[in-house]
Amino acid sequence: MNRREFIVCGATLVATGCIELKACNLGLGKEPNDLMPPFFSLPDLSPHISLQANQIHYNEHFVPVSNYVLNEYPLVYDVRQYNSYFNHCHYWQGLSIEPSIPNNFVKEIIKESWGSFSRLYNAVKEKCFEVTGSGWLVVKAFDSREIVIDFIGNDDEKMRSNCLISIDIWEHAYYLDFRYDVEAYIDSIVNLINWEVVNQRAMAAQLT
Q: What is the DSSP string of 60-86?
């Protein structure tokens, strides 16, 4: 698979609802190695995530992974790099400083599984304390309309189409701002949830 075929493959993921192309920085700048900026204006996550922390996360962790995926894959195949690329796209696409609210459908399925968003939110924070090592906290929805909290260790898996919310809990995502206070980091991320995107993901998952 060459770079062009990889981009076509990415378009297929868009068509199937697995990921939105505009959130996935496919490097289609004037030069082959150009990275298009994220669909939101980096680093507009402050004051919840500082400018410095977000720039380090993006420039020192995401950009090298993106370059690998866009220029080396699949000649040098590293599944974790490939997964990391998609997972970071999913994570950043789901964040925004613009206010938004869950639509009635999302409210309904959260209420069915958890009773309220606050109970789901508290469960997410409890889950982060159970985690050993690095990875992603993921809020998933299933065909039964059940909402569950899962953990992806390292980048062993790629976000699937039923992943509504993802939270990067690698140290590089939070240490500069929060040190080891992961709970405070989760609080900040909750203030950044882009419910417009979550609403779209829930609808795309075709829950019945």
A: IIIHHHHHHHHHTTTTS--HHHHHHHH
Q: Is the pLDDT of residue 28 over 50?
A: no
Q: Hey, what are 93's tokens?
A: 């696409």
CA distances from 3 to 27, 68, 150 (A): 10, 11, 32
Residue 113 is encoded by which pair of tokens? 């599984």
The pLDDT, as a whole number, for residue 7 is 38
| CA–CA separation, 96 and 89 (whole Å) | 13
Q: Which domains does the chain have, with CATH numbers?
A: 3-93 (no CATH), 104-204 (3.55.40.20)
- Judged against a pLDDT cut of 80, whether residue 32 lies above it is answered with no
Q: Say how far apart CA 59 and CA 197 lie, in whole Å.
A: 24
Q: Give 139: exposed, middle or buried? Use CB within 10 Å, 0-12, 13-18, 19+.
A: buried
